[in-house]
Amino acid sequence: MAKETYNKAIHCTVEQCANHCGDAAYCALDSITVGTHEAHPTVDQCTDCKSFQRKCC
User: Fold this and answer.
1) pLDDT tens track of the chain, all 57 residues?
2) Are 24 and 9 in contact (CB under 8 A)?
3) What's this model's pTM, rounded to 2 decimal places?
4) Of 21, 38, 42, 55, which has the fewest beta carbons less than 10 angstroms from its beta carbon?
5) Are 51 and 32 in contact (CB under 8 A)?
6) How far, in Å, CA of 31 to CA of 57, rounded?
7) What is the pLDDT of residue 2?
8) 1-25 as b/e: b if 16+ CB within 10 A
9) Cα–Cα distances in angstroms (integers) from residue 30 to residues 23, 26, 27, 43, 45, in the given order
10) What is the DSSP string of the chain?
């Protein structure tokens, strides 16, 4: 199901997230939180979208 509104400032391709805008590659949130799972991140794979919410069903 596509979200009614999307934030053109936040590009997103994670279709499994509840905040993803369906056929548009954007996030529906006003802002997101980006974090890391590493003590000393050195590459982009070390970062995470902490605003991710698993899409249900």
Assistant:
1) 457 789 999 999 999 999 999 889 999 999 999 999 999 999 999 999 999 999 997
2) no
3) 0.81
4) 42
5) yes
6) 24
7) 58
8) eebeebbeebebeeeebebbbeeee
9) 18, 11, 8, 26, 23
10) ---S--EEEEE---TTBTTB-TTSSEE-SS---EEESSSS--SGGGEEETT--BPP-
